Amino acid sequence: MLGIILLIWSLLPVYNMLLIALDPEEGEIEFAGNIWTSEPSLEGFRAVVTQEARYLEHFWHQFANSLLIGLSTMVLTVLIGSLASFAVSRLRLSNGSLLTNAALVTYAIPASFLIAPYYRIMHLYGLSDSLSAVIAAQVTFATPFAVLILQLYANLIPLELDDAARIEGASAVQLYLRIYLPLMTPALAVVASYALLLAWNDYLYQAVLLAVRNMTASVVQGQVFVDADAPWNAMMAAAIIYVLPPIALLLSLRRYIAASLSMSGAKV
Amino acid sequence: MSATRRVLVAAPAALKTQGRPPGRGHLRGSDCRWAIAFVAPYVAVFFAFVLYPFGYALWMAREPALYADLIADPLYLRTVVNTVLFVGLGVNLKMFLALLLSGFFLRPRWWIKPLLVVYVLPWLLAAAQTCISFHWMLIDQRGLVDGLLSALFGIDGPLWFNDRWLALGSNIVAYTWKWMPFWTLIFLAGRMMISRDIYDAAAVDGATGVRRFVHITVPLMANLYLICTFLSALWTVGDFTTVYLVSGGAPALSSEVLATLGFHYAFDAAKPALGVAAALSALPVLIPMAIVLMRKLQTSEVQL
């Protein structure tokens, strides 16, 4: 019983997206109170793919921008987070707890509260209307969580492994590449998916820091949100296309994520 | 019962002693240089994109007159009430249901794993797109929800975004839908760490069902639950997308929260300093929360 409620609860908004996307006419379903569509049509999807729909003339360019932001955020977060966490937990840098505290300081001020200063500061850095500005913002807000998670998992790897490698003459860089990275793969997969989802969920920073020319797929839908005459079947089709990549990534990483769950379970 | 109690007393202590053994000597010279080089990117990001913007925000909102303007603005006071309700109700409802559901997903049934995959889906779907879907589901008495209400029960749904409380409720429901799966997964991982032996010992002493939940699960999960609740509250205060795209502040800006109000002041009303001041006025609450979180994380080992 609870299972069925959860199923409906989870899928109702998704069903609503499909319902609107499969509507053959512009703006019919969402204003008619229909609960199913009698003649489903892929017209909305076709209009997105061929970029014929209003507001979606540059959809694939915007989609590429989103991908670039998402993947860059993912790679940079894993890189910066793992280097910092390695230095503190494996090289035993003194005052390492400062790092975790700095991470929490970042969350004491919600990202959305800093949007106005960010807008000014990106001008000062010469990054106005640049994808790098959004990437920098997303990396900033993803790395603290990455460091917290990586610190926890790094404690599960015995330090004796490092000592043994040192006797063989391994340097700090070799320890990082040969021992830390391979053994931390599950935790790194968790961090990578977290960073991608954070960038993929973002609306505010992309809407404010980027001008129309560099718009991303996430923002374009919100921009015309108040326009009831917009081609909503195509807009929803675009939304459905937009939500697919993280699912694909998570599915491909699920082996590692499951491993990290069982790894933490093995600790007790 | 005594056996259970002994295990329960021992468990937190056992968790604590698993920390790292105390430092073994100092860093060697080259290691120290490498360590500093490895930390440098993180520190650079922290200074350039956390401390500097924060300092800039404080400087932008330095005039005391701004805060007098805020207090005098009924919109601001209403927004503070909305934010407290949105965070207070939204976070507690979400976390408590997530804790209960994490137990549900431990059941050994064949359909539980596929159901978990579907249940986690909202977390994987992009926030803006699903919030827009919620908006269309509730719009104008003719969305999917109202369609279902009239088809199943023959009643006309209300105008969701014409009433402040319904709009606020819609935001909370959309927010819960999106983020509850994430915390359920965290609690699921936490529950999987609780050794089966403890439950078996409790079963021998006759503790099952609710009593097992109250006397074993709750004490052992309390720390994780508290830390997650604080972290989630900090994140929810900053949630912009849900309110902006589900109710859009409708009707007439009465369901705004601080994050969206700051945005409106800064970019729609072209009063950036006032917008920053509205956001910073939450700091007296946020900073103590962050400090409590810091203390908690330092004194305990938590697996996320």
Could you characterize the architecture of this molecule?
The complex is a heterodimer of chains A (about 270) and B (about 300). Chain A has about 270 residues and is mostly helical. Chain A has twelve helices and no strands. Chain A has a domain at about 65-225 and about 245-265: Orthogonal Bundle (MetI-like fold), CATH 1.10.3720.10. In chain A, α3 (about 60-90) packs parallel to α6. Residues about 1-25 of chain B have low confidence and may be disordered. Chain B has two domains: about 30-60, no CATH class; about 65-300, MetI-like fold, CATH 1.10.3720. Chain B is mainly α and about 300 residues long. Classes of the chains: A mainly alpha (about 270), B mainly alpha (about 300). At the A-B interface, α1, α3, α4, α5 and α6 of A face α2, α5, α6, α7 and α8 of B.
Within CATH, the superfamily of the domain at 67-225 and 243-266 in chain A carries the name MetI-like
Strand content of chain B: under 5%
The CATH topology of the largest domain in chain B is what? MetI-like fold
Which of globular, elongated, flat, extended, rod-shaped describes the shape of chain B? globular
Tally of contiguous helical segments of chain A? 12
- Tell me how many strands of chain A there are: 0
Span of the ends, CA to CA of chain A:
33 Å
Residue runs with pLDDT of under 50 for 5 or more positions of chain B = 1-25
**Cα radius of gyration of chain A in angstroms:** 22 Å
Q: Helical percent range of chain B?
A: over 70%
Short summary of the structure?
Chain A is mostly helical and 268 residues long. Chain A contains twelve helices and no strands. Chain A has helices at 2-21, 43-49, 59-89, 97-108, 115-124, 131-154, 159-167, 172-183, 185-201, 204-209, 217-223, 232-266.
